[in-house]
Structures are given as C-alpha cells and as structure tokens.
Amino acid sequence: MATAATKSQSTEIAVKSQQAVQQFVEDPEYAAEIAADAGKGLDNVDADSVAIPFLAVLQTNSPQCDADSGEYLSGAKAGMLCNTVTKEIFDGKVGVLFIPCEYQRKFLRWSPREVGGGFKGEIKPEDVLKMRETKRLIELENRLFVPDENGNVNPKKNDKVADTRVHYILLLNPNTGQAHQAVLSLASTQIKKSKQLISLLGNKVIKDPVTGQTATPPTFANVVRVTTVAEQNDQGKWSGVKFELEGLVRDSATYRMARAFHMMVRADRAAVNYDAAAGSAEDETQSGRF
User: Fold this and answer.
1) Residues near 57 by Cβ (< 8 Å), separated by ≥ 6?
2) Fewer Cβ close by (within 10 Å): the C or N end of the chain?
3) Cβ neighbours of residue 120 under 8 Å, at least 6 residues apart?
4) What's the pLDDT tens digit per position in 198-208?
C-alpha cells in the first residue's frame, strides 16, 4: 500500500506531469499518456520499500572523505553535508535549507566497531529507566552500555545505547529545487543543538493580519538553514551543526508535502535504516552521527 507521502507526491505529479513531460517528449499525445499514468508502479510501495536518506555531517574519518573507501565521494571534505542516498554533498558553510516535519527522541543500540559494528535496534525512552534500575543498562563515562552476563562493561566489546534526537525533514535541494524526505540524527554533543532548534520553532509566532491574533505555526510551516561549525573539546575536534530560521514555507505544494511527511511519521510509517547513516555510533564526535 502506498504511503501518505507517496500518494501526495503522486497527486502533485499528476497535476504537473504533462507540462513536465512535454519538455522531454515531442509528441503531445504520448506526453498525455505518460501524464495519465503518473505515479503508477508505486502502488505497493510501503515504508520498508523506501530508503529515507540521512543528512549527515562529514567528519575527517567519514568513509565519504576516504579515497580508499568504497563510499568515497569526489570532492568530499570534513564539514560538508551529505545526502546518504543520493550521494550529493553540500558546502557546510553555505548550508542547506530544510523543513522540520516531525521530531522523536530515541535510544539507539549500536555494536562497537571492534566487534563488527552496526545498528542493533532501538529502546523506548520509558524503558531506559527500567533497564538502568535493573542493571540491564550501565552508565560508564556518561555513556550507556549493555553489560555482559556478569554485569561487566568493556566499551570496545559491549553494545552502546545512544540518546538520539531524530528530526524528520524535507530537504530543499539547492541543486534541483526539489524537496526530498530526509532524517537528521543528533546525539552526544549535538543534543544541545537539537534543543536549540526546538526552542526556535516553539518560540516562533505569526500574527493573523485580519484578526490580529498570534499563534505558533506548525513546525512544518518553517524553513530552517543548517550549516556546519568547527567544534572541539578535550577529546578532539569535529564539525557540528548550527540552525537558523529562514522564514515560512511560501508555496502550498511544498507545505502539503511537509504535512504529509509529518503525518506519515506520526502514523509510524517512516522506516529508517540507521545502518545507512555515515560512520558508526561508538564515537559520535568523529562519525557524523553525533
């Protein structure tokens, strides 16, 4: 069954497709046929069929920056932003625009790189407290780990559980002018940046020109610019994120796409492949996942 976002996109295609197709197809009757079939072939697409990309911040050791890596991207440098599905990279100083559609707090379990790495699932925030009380999660150096059968923790062997702030966004691609679903995942040092973004959105007020009444618009009515900034502490240096509000969404079609993505996430129909994110989670300040 098609997702809400897919249906919304198909409707938009149906409205605009004949004009778009005629740019590439000279025969107007053929163009009309293609337009009439807009969106078909996606009828059985569900959340597990769609790869929602991450908007990742590249670090010095990100595979996209390593010329010897199979994931290397020409021109990629630390501090750039990267769409992990399309493999597009963007200047971190200039940044990119996005629409914040939904937010979730998750606790994600990761296997350390030394034993193969990889995403091991998520734990509900309400379950984390119970697991800590029963010693199924142990805090070590401000990080949560899953202990072995004897209750011991070795950061290089035991799974880590990372407090992660997940922002579901519509990325406004500066190269194509199109909007694409994406995920911006923030943890560790970048949690404070997530809180700052939420504060910016919560404090935004618009005024009805007719009634004079004020209200906070839905988050998906806002356009946000994300750029990257150099950061460091006593453990190292990395590239972090910075958010600024750029105003409101100006066209109704994009607003409807953002609202559809919001509803899709709220209905738990947005499957995210966390293994597709850049780097690994055991050292967020060096991985791009934070």
Assistant:
1) 79, 80, 81, 82, 92, 228, 239, 240, 241, 278, 288, 290
2) N
3) 109, 110, 111, 159
4) 999 999 998 88
Q: Residue 284: is it exposed, middle or buried by C-beta count within 10 angstroms (0-12/13-18/19+)? A: buried
At residue 210, the 3 state secondary structure works out as: coil
- Residues 6 or more apart in contact with residue 209 via CB below 8 angstroms: none
Whole-structure pTM value:
0.80
Residue from 164, 180, 186 nearest 101 by CA: 180
Q: At CA 247, angle to CA 98 and CA 106, rounded to 5?
A: 40
Q: Which residue has the tokens 């460091």?
A: 232
- Token couple for 24: 């590439």
Contact assessment for residue 270 and residue 235, using Cβ atoms and an 8 Å cutoff: no
